[in-house]
């Protein structure tokens, strides 16, 4: 479970507010999709959940552990895939996965079969002995996702995880997310691809200007808008400059 | 038609490209003055320091070196060296330094830039792009080269030369500098077009960087011997001989044609000087035309050959081999392995932190062996048997006991040597900064920051301190230093180097530089130069108290020698303990909270 309690993040001494007094609870067993236009504050929020950024105010709990009070314990409960897959490029694929497994203390007996299984699923078996810098963007993204799935923690946080993935890998990831949630664990991901969100998520949150404008199921969203249109149409209406939500946010 | 238009040179496009390259492209700063840095505000210590302060600091360093060179030139003039001979030394140094670093820098600036792939898509000619990049490179390169000119100017002051000669020498030097840089690029363009080695950036950087490091150390060793005897005067006269005829003059003439006209410019009358300068200008113009032709033919072809180069494929790893390759390690070992692999696989880091550290002991061995050889030869000529000389040295070192001031002086000598190693403290300081953006990836992991910092200490310690330790122990054994005294000196050496490394590592962790685009930006340029000199200050800080304790026993005699020796060692132990706590505590905590 993820609990976000009145979290704000500002820069330049408060002049720039990236996330404003955001409160949200994401339950175990749930896939939560975070939608929002560019610069809405999605990545800032996910970075705070992953412990990369510290909130200016408010509290974040991951499975009951306050990330500010005990960051190590909180991080052991989560895996995070950031919006850029260009990390540790000089390591070979298996060296990267070993590093991740060591940091998360994945037992010896589990890591070998799990790495082999992930490599097979994502079609990376022949690439593990190559340096990540030689991978294409999509292969790097796959490697980051494999690194995140390897420790199999209770919470997955993924920032634009489908970017650059081929259709098979994208489908695999969606299946993995579903399985993870069905096992009583939590998945939070951000996306621009509304079609993906519509098909995968249990609930969505729409964020713009650092504020959460809407939280609910896609059906609730339809009900709210009295619309039979696509999620895309509702999203555009919600985040447009003329939206009453956006006005409130300002 | 469009194709032929795109091949032509356009002044308008040159201005546009130059503006884009100066403002938007990341590049090396060969002057070391931070002139190549962007103006965007930056966070953290480096941002806080401000580009203005950095420029002032680097300007001060530049002027200090220039003043030292000016004094050297003045002294040469005082002992009868002519301005032409001093200028020859300037030109030979200029060509040597440019050959040493210029080709590598030119390749980096002209080819190993991310934005080049994008430039290929624009309707801009190869000649225009190449000249835009080259003008920018030359601007910074010439500023760096100017550091050598004061040797000649100092000599002019000593001989009371007319102001016109100062102007002529300055212009001649600038034209020589432009010519040698153009010559290098003329070599570099076909090299990058046809050389397989150059198409693998990593391999090229590793090979070329290694050559530079080895050559630099060779020059260091050579200069130790060249400066014996008549010193600078003989060095200057050797430079003059290089320009006066034979194969060296031909090589110099090809690399830097204006150098062949140097005598007319420095020693001739007004008309001859003007003629000489015009001749130099003509040489530069010819090289510019040749370069334009070469660039039009091969520059973009070389750039295209680089796009998509590399990508070496590895074996398929699976089954037992995969299980073996991914077996469990602790946090420290995992971080150590990751850091070591990155260090070895990034050519700039390998050359700067691994190769130069490993070659440094070799440098000392060569100096020690050569000095010993010279010493033994001189002893033989004086009728003394070499073994007798060694026995004499051993009889002196046998007197090194714990109540002898000689041991305290030896310990002070070890500290001075340790202070010299402050130059390599920069390997510790850069430990965290080397991770760059990867650091923020690791911030999202449940990382043990104490283990992370411990791993950052071990690598430079093993590379820089341990080989020197082996050398010191070997020297102590050969010289027959008593075991207890030898152990004490080793303890002092370890205390000094461990404290220096820990303090440097901690400072690097508190003020890391994590936002860089390519590795060369981190290890070259103004900030890096400042860090190298800051290492000396850090060394002085950790060695001050033990040195005072030793001097209190050996020089001022306010403490008994055994007490002074014990106190110095105790201070180092206390310093190391406090620094370990500081690095693993506050410094590690600061990393766990660091944001972009």
What does this structure look like?
The complex is a heterodimer of chains A (250) and B (596). Chain A is an alpha/beta fold. Chain A is 39% helix and 24% strand. In chain A, strands 6-7-8-3-9-10 form a six-stranded mixed sheet, sandwiched between helices. Chain A has a four-stranded antiparallel sheet with strand order 2-1-4-5. With 596 residues, chain B is mostly helical. Chain B is globular and about 75 Å long. The chains are: A alpha/beta (250), B mainly alpha (596).
Keywords:
heterodimer, A: 250 residues, alpha/beta, 6-stranded mixed β-sheet, 4-stranded antiparallel β-sheet, 10 helices, 10 strands, globular, B: 596 residues, mainly alpha
How would the blueprint of this fold be written?
The complex is a heterodimer of chains A (250) and B (596).
Chain A: E1 2-11, E2 16-26, E3 31-35, H1 42-49, E4 57-62, E5 65-66, H2 71-76, E6 78-81, H3 93-103, H4 108-121, H5 137-149, E7 155-159, H6 167-182, E8 186-191, H7 194-200, E9 203-208, E10 211-216, H8 218-225, H9 231-239, H10 244-249
Parallel strand pairs in A: 3-8, 3-9, 6-7, 7-8
Antiparallel strand pairs in A: 1-2, 1-4, 4-5, 9-10
Chain B: H1 2-7, H2 11-24, H3 44-49, H4 51-78, H5 83-110, H6 116-119, H7 126-145, H8 150-159, H9 163-194, H10 196-199, H11 201-226, H12 232-244, H13 246-255, H14 262-267, H15 270-306, H16 319-325, H17 331-345, H18 347-381, H19 386-397, H20 405-420, H21 426-429, H22 438-443, H23 449-478, H24 483-510, H25 519-523, H26 526-554, H27 561-593
Helix pairs in contact in B: 2-7, 4-8, 4-26, 5-7, 5-8, 5-9, 5-12, 7-9, 7-15, 9-15, 11-18, 12-13, 17-18, 17-23, 18-23, 20-24, 20-26, 23-24, 23-27, 24-26, 24-27, 26-27
Largest interface chains and counts: A-B, 45 and 41 residues
Q: Give the spatial strand order of the biggest sheet of chain A.
A: 6-7-8-3-9-10
Fraction in beta strands of chain B: under 5%
Overall pLDDT level of chain B = 83
Shape of chain A: globular
Give the low-confidence spans of chain A: none
């Amino acid at each position: 479970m993820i609990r976000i309690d009145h979290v704000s993040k500002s820069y330049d001494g408060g002049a720039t507010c990236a996330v404003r007094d955001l409160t949200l609870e994401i339950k175990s067993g749930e896939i939560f999709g975070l939608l929002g236009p560019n610069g809405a504050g999605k990545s800032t929020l996910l970075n705070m959940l992953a412990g990369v950024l510290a909130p200016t105010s408010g509290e974040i709990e991951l499975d009951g552990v306050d990330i500010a009070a005990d960051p190590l314990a909180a991080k052991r409960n989560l895996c995070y895939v950031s919006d850029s897959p260009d990390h540790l490029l000089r390591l070979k694929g298996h060296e990267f996965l070993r590093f991740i497994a060591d940091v998360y203390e994945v037992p010896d007996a589990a890591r070998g079969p799990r790495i082999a299984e992930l490599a097979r699923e994502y079609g990376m078996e022949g690439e593990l002995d190559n340096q990540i810098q030689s991978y294409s963007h999509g292969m790097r993204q796959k490697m980051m996702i494999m690194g995140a799935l390897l420790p199999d923690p209770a919470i997955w946080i993924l920032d634009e995880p489908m970017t650059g993935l081929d259709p098979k890998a994208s489908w695999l990831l969606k299946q993995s997310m579903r399985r993870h949630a069905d096992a009583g664990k939590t998945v939070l991901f951000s996306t621009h691809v509304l079609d993906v969100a519509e098909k995968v998520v249990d609930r969505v949150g729409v964020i713009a200007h650092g504020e959460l404008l809407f939280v609910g199921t896609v059906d609730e969203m339809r009900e709210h808008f009295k619309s039979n249109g696509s999620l895309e149409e509702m999203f555009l209406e919600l985040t447009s400059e003329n939206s009453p939500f956006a006005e409130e946010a300002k | 038609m469009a194709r032929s238009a795109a091949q032509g040179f356009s002044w308008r496009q040159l201005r546009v490209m130059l503006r884009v390259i100066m403002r938007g492209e990341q590049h090396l700063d060969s002057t070391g003055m931070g002139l190549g840095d962007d103006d965007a505000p930056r966070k953290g210590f480096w941002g806080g320091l401000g580009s203005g302060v950095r420029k002032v600091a680097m300007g001060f360093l530049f002027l200090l070196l220039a003043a030292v060179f000016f004094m050297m030139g003045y002294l040469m003039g005082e002992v009868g060296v002519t301005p032409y001979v001093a200028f020859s030394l300037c030109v030979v140094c200029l060509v040597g330094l440019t050959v040493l670093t210029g080709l590598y820098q030119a390749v980096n600036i002209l080819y190993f830039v991310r934005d080049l792939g994008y430039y290929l898509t624009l309707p801009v000619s190869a000649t225009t792009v190449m000249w835009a990049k080259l003008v920018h490179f030359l601007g910074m390169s010439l500023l760096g080269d100017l550091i050598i000119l004061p040797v000649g100017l100092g000599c002019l002051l000593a001989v009371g030369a007319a102001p016109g000669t100062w102007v002529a020498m300055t212009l001649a030097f600038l034209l020589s500098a432009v010519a040698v840089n153009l010559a290098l690029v003329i070599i570099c363009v076909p090299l990058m077009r046809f050389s397989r080695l150059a198409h693998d950036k990593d391999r090229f950087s590793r090979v070329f960087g290694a050559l530079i490091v080895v050559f630099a150390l060779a020059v260091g060793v050579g200069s130790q011997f060249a400066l014996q005897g008549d010193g600078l005067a003989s060095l200057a006269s050797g430079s003059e001989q290089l320009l006066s005829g034979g194969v060296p003059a031909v090589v110099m003439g090809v690399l830097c044609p204006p150098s062949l006209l140097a005598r007319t410019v420095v020693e001739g009358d007004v008309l001859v000087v003007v003629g000489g300068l015009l001749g130099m200008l003509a040489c530069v113009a010819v090289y510019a035309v040749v370069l334009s032709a070469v660039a039009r033919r091969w520059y973009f072809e070389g750039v295209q050959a680089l796009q998509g180069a590399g990508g070496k494929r590895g074996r398929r790893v699976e089954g037992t081999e995969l299980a073996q390759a991914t077996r469990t390690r602790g946090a420290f070992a995992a971080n150590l392995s990751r850091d070591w692999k990155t260090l070895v696989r990034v050519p700039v880091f390998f050359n700067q932190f691994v190769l130069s550290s490993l070659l440094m002991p070799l440098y000392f061995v060569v100096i020690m062996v050569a000095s010993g050889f010279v010493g033994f030869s001189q002893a033989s000529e004086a009728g003394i048997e070499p073994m007798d000389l060694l026995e004499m040295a051993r009889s002196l070192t046998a007197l090194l006991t714990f109540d002898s001031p000689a041991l305290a002086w030896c310990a002070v000598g070890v500290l001075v040597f340790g202070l010299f190693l402050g130059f390599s403290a920069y390997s510790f300081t850069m430990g965290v900064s080397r991770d760059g953006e990867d650091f923020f990836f690791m911030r999202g992991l449940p990382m043990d920051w104490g283990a992370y910092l411990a791993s950052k200490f071990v690598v430079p310690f093993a590379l820089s301190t341990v080989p020197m330790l082996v050398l010191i122990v070997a020297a102590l054994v050969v010289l027959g230093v008593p075991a207890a005294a030898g152990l004490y000196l080793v303890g002092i050496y370890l205390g000094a180097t461990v404290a220096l490394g820990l303090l440097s590592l901690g400072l690097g962790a508190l003020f890391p530089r994590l936002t860089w685009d390519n590795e060369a930006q981190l290890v070259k340029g103004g900030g890096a130069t400042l860090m190298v000199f800051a290492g000396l200050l850090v060394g002085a800080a950790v060695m001050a108290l033990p040195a005072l304790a030793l001097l209190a026993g050996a020089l001022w005699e306010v403490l008994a020698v055994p007490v002074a020796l014990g106190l110095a060692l105790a201070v180092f132990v206390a310093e190391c303990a406090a620094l370990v706590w500081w690095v693993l505590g506050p410094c590690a905590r600061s990393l766990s909270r660091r944001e972009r």
